[in-house]
Request: fold
Amino acid sequence: MNRRILAAMRYTRRNPALAVGIGLLLAILLFWGIGSIFVPFSRTSALSVPASRVPSWEFPLGTDRQGRDLLAVMIAGTSLTLRIGLIAGFIGIFIGTILGFVSAYYRGAVDTIIRGSVDVLLTVPSLLVMILVAVALKGGLTVEGMALVVSILAWVWPTRTIRAQVLTMRESGYIRVAQLSGMSSPEIIVKEMMPNLLPYLAASLVNAVAAAILASIGLEALGLGPMESPTLGMTIYWVLHYSALLHGMWWWWAPPIIIIVILFVGLFLLSTGLDELANPRVRRSV
Amino acid sequence: MNTQLLKLQELQVFYHTDEGAVKAVDGVTLSLAKGERLGLVGESGCGKSTIAMTIMGLIKSPGRIEGGKILLGEVDLTKLSEGEMRRLRLNQVGLIPQGAMNSLNPVSRVKDQIIDGMRAHNQQISKRELRSRVYEVLESVGLRRGVARMYAHELSGGMKQRVCVAIAISLHPQVVIADEPTSALDVVVQREVMETIGQLQQQLGASVILAGHDMGLMAQFVDRLAVMYAGKLVEIGPVKELFAKPLHPYTQLLLASLPGLAQRGVFRGIPGLTPSLVHVPPGCLFYPRCPQAMEICSQEVPALREGDGRQVACHLYDSEVMI
Amino acid sequence: MKSIIELRNVTKVFGGGRSSTVAVDDFSLAVDAESPPIKALVGESGSGKTTIALLMLGFILPTKGEMLYKGQNFQRLSRRERRMFHREVQAIFQDPFGVYNPFYKVDHVLDIVIAKLHLASSRAERQALKEEALRGVGIRPEETLGHYPHQLSGGQRQRVTVARALLMRPKFIIADEPVSMVDASLRATILESLTKLNRELQIPILYITHDLTTAYHVCDDITILYQGSIVESGGVEQVIKGPKHPYTQLLVGSIPWPDPSRRWGEGQVAVVDRESTGADNQCKFAPRCPFVMPICRERRPPFFQADNGHAVACYLCEDKPVVEGGKIGPC
Amino acid sequence: MKLDYIAKRFGIFLLVIWLALTVIFFLPRFSTQNPIREKMNQEMLRGGYVQVGMEQMIEEYESKFGLNKPLWEQYGTYLSDMGRLDFGYSIAHYPKTVKSMLSEGLPWSIGLLGMTTLIAFGVGSLLGALLAWRRAPQVLRYLFPPLLVLSAVPFYLLGLVLIFFLAFENSWFPLFGGYSPGTVTDWLSISFWGNVLHHSFLPALSMILAGIGLWALTMRGMMVTVQGEDYMTMAEAKGLKGSTLFFRYALRNSILPQVTSLVLALGHVVGGAVLVEVVFGYPGIGTTLYHAIREFDYFVIQGIILIVIVAIALGTFLLDVAYPLLDPRITYRRA
Reply:
């Protein structure tokens, strides 16, 4: 058993980004897990606690002007924002993988259409498109609704990276040998391509989740998010709305920013770590 | 033998990897006379390219010069600072690179890549003189003047390699090192490029070190040939005698594995694998694959014996007194 | 006697419009299953030899002309026939590093074949089959099986692909530059295992290479390619010892003899003007040919029968009988 | 060769604009609300306060859109309006036209966005290049990790933090706004420029700090790959000086993919810039957009988003056309 721990230790020395990334994300999940046990969700709704209280024993993170216990809001907010990110991320990866494989594997008209639309959509500012959609839906958004809005363009970047990977793989010798061994296309995709693609898929998923979270916080900060639910983005919106900063209520805006930063740095390091796993610098430089 | 222009003495170059120090070049001694063409032949991983790059001072980490000297005249190149070495490159020692396909800067024109080499060593050349030097040097390698304005992607493989040759000889260096210059070219273009290098060598009187794995190319081009195996020198000698009567068993097998056009079906391979350069076994490295291996070969490293213009490192010649 | 694989007047053009390149131009070649020779297809880079390999393997389709498998057009094969095609037509590729999926051990390549062709029913039988195939190509199984590709040398990896072909008992093997990335000392052993396949298992082999010397030793007959078209074809002694086409003479002359006393390509300086390739109606080698005649620029030369089974596409042999229908190849 | 490359790129440029126009036109048609009716409800909620020009405004819109007209006819008038840059009227600030609101905010946004993107790209790329250059000062190594963490933070949140420390705690910089209130906007006087720069320093700083890290990371990766290329070995073998090797060979080749990713990053940067303007109360179109969203001023939202998409498409087109100047191979290989 310790041989495997030893191998893992040696690997983390060579790939620190992965370890630190996982560590940060674990810290956040722990914070949410333990927090949700001790702090009741009910204290996240407005007027549930006395308003604008400085952090104290009773309210470790203080309360905001609308009477919400900020510790409860942080705990609930983290899980809601993560949920938005994961839903949008998975949708993005799912569509991205299919489109990426289809356009790379079955060349021709399909490929030109997909590649063309990806190139165009990449330059379009995704946040503004989402603003348009959110405004058209005019409030009344649930957390899941927000995830769907954010996932509108979440598939563009994964399609592009996966298509590139599959293209290089398709020309490689071992795919030719597989075709010669009589393996059918689906078999080749699953048996020959997928194992090498998994690290890239994981890295693209992490990037998609990060992008989705960034977009959702942006939309919510603009006031286009689910008004009632205490997501991290909505907290930022209320901070801006009530200009908490100018009122010196540091305990209102500092915690969401800290959590968001930890979340993004964690996801970023995880993605670079997975990229390193996919083609280690050693193999890359050889 | 004061006419020796370049001398390598017990040169050692190791690559420090995770698994340990790879002894790419392990105590190589050889010398290059003025105007001589020396061949450095061996299979992949024998250290010939490492020697070429070490002479140019282009060994980067994890590679490092562990020991030995490289004497250009009286100057020991291994002791020079980066600045001093930089001033020698192209001026005294020119390199014709291996990767013909990718050795030119893809985003600048051919003439700029010739000019920046010259200007790095002599600031005062006027623009007009530089342009005439560019045309002169391009024509000397058989390329028309129009090539000066072209980019790398507009040239064929052979033309790209000729531009590299033009750059390497643009400042008339004393020594030209060609590291497998034609391995990426077709056989027809290879002959044309090698002929160009040969003519230029005669005109400039420069000495050439040709590193490569094609014994046929060596037979046609070099005066003296050094055979490398797993980072060590196994045999050196004038090319005619070496081909006629190879001394070292590895050289014999190497020559036998060449599919010449004299007689069909008479070429066979060398069984076994090249040894690991990290955990170097004791004794002669060719011992496991050598048909004439003896007991002593697995214990002692054979010394390089000298005799009538030829050198060989093999215990077969321990008894014979070769002075 | 139907030939197992035949390319009939195949032309392949890549890219469209202005930047299209003709990789293969009106090329015909037939491979017969009986008395299987080892045929060599020799040409410089860009002569279209790899495109021909891809055409024969069905990876790409001809722009003009047909690729026939046992007399039937490849594109009209049924699913079952196509699977039979993949079983009977195998290949050995140039790059020993790219042929293995880095994720799996080396055995994967052999296991897939055994599974797909149901060659073994039990694990023990499968292991035995693998070991026997590996010994057949001269490598010790314990040194290779169970290892990852990056743990083996180029030579070992290439021999495992030959072992893979040995397992499949194909009807035809295309070896596309199998030894160009392998050291000289290992070249012979790999080529030996190929010739063994041909002699003992009667499998016709198409050896594609740019290296005339290895082709001289290994093959029975040789076809010389220049920019997508055949310029000369015949028995190996005839073509190499008595080349009739100026390009073949240039090729043979450019080989550096491993013999210092014999000077390199005496005389014969070819006019090198690479950019301008021959227009459609003229001989492609005309711009570089030292013996170019006016007729060479007007009409593309047909194949002349220099002597028994030795065809040359050059007006220098104008006096010889013309071979009809472009169907050449030694009988 | 060059011409059809430009023509192709211009075609894509027009396609993007047409796509944006169409999406902006049809999207609200799917959602049931009518922006005008929505606005009237909002007025009722505000306690009966009825804006004077309300009836006139409704007729104005009725005639302008002619809701009874077939959809395609509306689409036709819509396109011709857009052609004349007539984005209609702002509901919240009637009779102000959307175009006038845009022209007020646009110069501010372009100034802030253009300046910060170029500085972040330039400084980031140079830093990344130096990080990968073994002869560069090693102290840069310690600068890189903090910048990387900063680049993981959204611009506007970094802005909040900067306001707190540099403006709120010790007031070196103004708390918000584009220029101190009360000054007359006189673009000619130096003092006014000084005032503007003083105000826009923090927003610019937040965007630059958050941008440098990523550019440095991608540039460093590219430099490492380029230094492994054969032409670098050949360049060193020519005995070129360190500076020539660095600028004319390594940087010159590594910058090519950076420019391509600059094109791709334009959209993302603009998205973030909107929120930076909101956090800093900077008088650009971002703040206008924020207020338009709060007041559900639909035509202003449409106008701003359209202008931004067109601006980015124009930027992409210009960068694409300029790219062959950097990389001669492009026109050769018909992009």
Summary: Chains A and B do not touch (no CB pair under 8 Å). The domain at 28-278 of chain A is CATH 1.10.3720.10 (MetI-like fold). Residues 282-286 of chain A have pLDDT under 50 and may be disordered.
